[in-house]
Amino acid sequence: MAAPEPEAPTAARSRAKDHSPWNWLLFIPIVVPLIPVFFNADSPRFLGFPRFYWLQLAYILLGVATTTLVYQMTKKRAGGPSDEPAGTDTGGR
Predict the structure, then answer these.
(1) Which residues, in sequence order, are bridge partners of residue 49?
(2) Before 85, cis peptide (omega within 30)?
(3) Where are the beta strands (DSSP E) in 1-93?
(4) Whole-prediction pTM value?
(5) 20 to 30 A Cα–Cα from 74, which one of 24, 32, 63, 65?
(6) How many Cα neighbours within 13 Å face the side chain of 77?
């Protein structure tokens, strides 16, 4: 009796095909906080907080916005169960 061959994981295969140029935008929230000239000062102050502290919050918002944009631009448009038109119940028949 021969042992069955293991199947290749489909998740790994689909990730390997994801070469969207939108993914390069994910470097923005990584690189921008590493540039010292942006936060190397005490002024201007916002609500009494020095620039460094409110820029940290701005970097979080930048990361969320960039990640959301990349996700929306790279998600699969066809083939998913949510792409079926409303009212087309095919379950179990």
Answers:
(1) 46
(2) no
(3) none
(4) 0.60
(5) 32
(6) 3
pLDDT digits (tens, 9 = 90+) for 27-80: 999 999 898 888 788 788 888 888 888 889 999 999 999 999 999 998 876 555
In sequence order, the β-bridge partners of residue 46 are: 49
The token duo for 16 is 């390997």
Distance CA 80, CA 10 (A): 15
Token reading at 68? 């959301």
CB 41 within 8 A of CB 25: no
Note whether 66 and 25 are within 8 A (CB): yes
- Measuring CA to CA, which residue among 29, 65, 31, 36 is closest to residue 51? 36
CA 76 to chain centre: 13
Question: C-alpha angle with apex 52: 47 to 57, nearest 5 degrees?
Answer: 70
